[in-house]
Amino acid sequence: MMGTGKTTVGRALATKLGYRFVDTDEIITQVTQQSISEVFATSGEAAFRQIETQVLAKVCAYTHLAIATGGGVVLQRENWSYLHHGLIVWLDAPTELLSTRLSADDTRPLLQTGDLRSQLETILQQRQPLYSQADLRVVVTSEETPEQLATRILQEIPQVLKQPSTLPQS
Ligand SMILES: Nc1ncnc2c1ncn2[C@@H]1O[C@H](COP(=O)(O)OP(=O)(O)O)[C@@H](O)[C@H]1O
Ligand SMILES: O=C(O)C1=C[C@@H](OP(=O)(O)O)[C@@H](O)[C@H](O)C1
Ligand SMILES: [Mg+2]
């Protein structure tokens, strides 16, 4: 979800792994030569989603790469086949924390109309079933730095790679 820290924590995670890092929004900004807000304003959300899918389709093929996506990447069914090239981490943060973080932020076009808190709640409610399809859910609180969160993600990844029930019996 927007504001949970995908861009910030994803970068920290890549550093810890010795991986490269890309953010799909940053690539979209580079290829369109427009900010995300400008893409939404001039071309609309549907066009943005098409570009996002094209970018994801390219970057998902790389190994040793941590990818931060936009929070709406879960909305397009075909994106899931690309996401599943890797391990999908869901940063799950309460709307209260998100609204504190994003109250002075005007870079997320979907949050620029109406009351921020209720917008976040509405979008989160719609997307929760999609986010819950991720491989790993990490609950975000205000207490941990991006580096601490990245460390915790690294600690939790082995548990989803080696589900006891899927291991061969010895
Ligand atoms: N663990 C954290 N602790 C404090 N602030 C954070 C943390 N993670 C992200 N932030 C801040 O929250 C805001 C949103 O983070 P960002 O990485 O852009 O989220 P996303 O990419 O999920 O929308 C930024 O201002 C960022 O600096
Ligand atoms: O959730 C969304 O629909 C969006 C999230 C944004 O990225 P972040 O999740 O990094 O804020 C960005 O892709 C765009 O504003 C749409
Ligand atoms: Mg981001």
Characterise this structure.
This protein has 170 residues and is mostly helical. The chain has one domain: P-loop containing nucleotide triphosphate hydrolases (Rossmann fold), CATH 3.40.50.300. Helix content is 54%, strand content 9%. It is built from 8 helices and 4 strands. The protein has helices at residues 6-17, 24-32, 36-43, 45-59, 77-83, 95-102, 116-131, 146-161; strands at 20-23, 65-68, 89-92, 136-139. The strands form 2 sheets. A two-stranded parallel sheet has the order 1-2. The protein has a two-stranded parallel ribbon with strand order 3-4. Helix 2 packs across helix 4. The chain starts with 5 loop residues before the first helix and ends in a 9-residue tail after the last helix. The mean pLDDT is 96. The site of magnesium ion has 5 residues, from helix 1. Adenosine-5'-diphosphate (ADP) is lined by residues 2-9, 68, 101, 144-146, 149.
At a glance:
The chain is mostly helical and 170 residues long.
Which descriptors apply to this entry?
binds shikimate-3-phosphate, binds magnesium ion, two-stranded parallel ribbon, Rossmann fold, shikimate kinase activity, globular, ATP-binding, 170 residues, P-loop_NTPase, mainly alpha
